[in-house]
Design a protein that fits this description.
Chain lengths: 158, 158
DNA sequence: GATCGTATGATATAACATATCAACCCCATC
DNA sequence: GATGGGGTTGATATGTTATATCATACGATC
């Protein structure tokens, strides 16, 4: 769950560890990680890229876990509200959280070539958003920090 | 065009100055600021909030400048590509640029109560996005920095 | 066993965005 | 002044993302 960058890694452990963490956290907080919710988390964890709600819905549909948009959106709302997944605004899509352990101010790096998305840990208080907001007297409730570009693997090719 | 924050100001000059700048810049760069494009810019300048493409389209339709989605999207593409407007990813909506003069790395402060959106100037090189990207060897082509929350006027009320 | 809260099922629709092809206009070139 | 290319517009259709609404199921609580 700490896959920091665009590097190769044992991906099976990503899924297993992600689900295990979620199960534990839900138990601690009395959250219901129902079948559909857990399955959506697994689907998101299965790839290091953002997936659209309808792409997720196709999986659910194929597995008999639901066939209509609200099924996917409800699961995604649960996952994002509770920090198990994030919405990537730039893509109108979703990705599993890769820093489940600590509260965070994520920065997402989105490769336009290979579509991989990496969640990096940022220091909220040091960012430009926070600085600007403080100066304006603005109370930040949610900050979106997303960069689109080329990952180390794709940059040379392009 | 330097309305920095959520403060009161002479709004007519916002529109006039914004259009004037755009006209001049287009002349300098040989860009065609056609009727529809200029009108969309004026519509965006008319309010300090983000407007959806279909909301803009309604205006155009009422004025006989077009009635189908591509009309609005084409004008918006021209305006955003040339820096006269910005897309707010968080809202799937658009806003006129308020720093036409200088190249910039804008931060948007979005008030969820009054819907006002302020474009603030940030220092790209100092932000957390840039720091994180550098560490990961990621080449940033576009950075999205948007904060949602409460503006100084709305924060006390809430 | 009635009530309540949470989760699902099901249907419809809203909201946002793009693909495609034809027509047109301006202007430069032949 | 005809030809052709580039950019713009018109028109139609479609694709994609997201939510509203009402009904049903089910375990927990009283
Ligand atoms: Zn996260
Ligand atoms: Zn890549
Ligand atoms: Zn701007
Ligand atoms: Zn406000």
């Amino acid at each position: 769950m700490t896959s920091q960058a665009f590097e190769a890694h044992d991906h099976r452990s990503c899924i297993a560890a992600g689900v295990a963490s979620a199960v534990q956290i839900c138990a601690e907080r009395n959250l219901q990680l129902t079948a559909a919710r857990q399955r959506v988390l697994e689907i998101l964890l299965s790839e290091h890229r953002a997936m659209g709600a309808y792409e997720i819905l196709e999986h659910l549909r194929a597995e008999g876990l639901g066939s209509q948009p609200p099924v996917a959106y409800r699961a995604l709302e649960f996952l994002t509200k509770n920090g198990f997944a994030h919405r990537i605004e730039r893509l109108n899509a979703f990705i599993a959280c890769s820093h489940l352990d600590n509260a965070h101010a994520p920065v997402f790096l989105i490769c336009r070539a290979c579509e991989r998305v990496v969640e990096a840990e940022a220091n909220a208080a040091q960012g430009e958003i926070d600085r600007v907001a403080r100066r304006a007297g603005f109370v930040v409730e949610r900050a979106v920090r997303e960069a689109e570009g080329l990952c180390p693997a794709c940059a040379p090719t392009a």
